[in-house]
Amino acid sequence: MSPKVLLCGNVNKNIVWAQKEVEQELAAVAEVLPFTSKSRDEFFKDLQGKYSEVVAIYRHNDSANSIGVFDAELISKLPQSVKYICHNGAGYDQIDIKAATERGIQVSHTPGAVDDATATTAMFLILSSLRQYWRAEVNARNGKWKSGLKPASDPEGKTIGIVGMGGIGSVVAKRCIAFDMKVIYYNRKPIQPTPSFECEYVSSLEELLKRSDVVSLNLPLNKNTQSSFGKEQFAQMKDGAVLVNTARGGVVDQEALIEALKSGKLASAGLDVFPNEPEIDERLVAMDNITLLPHMGTETKDTQHKMEALTLRNIISAIKGQGLLNQVAEQK
Question: Which positions are annotated as active-site residues?
Answer without folding.
Answer: 248, 277, 295
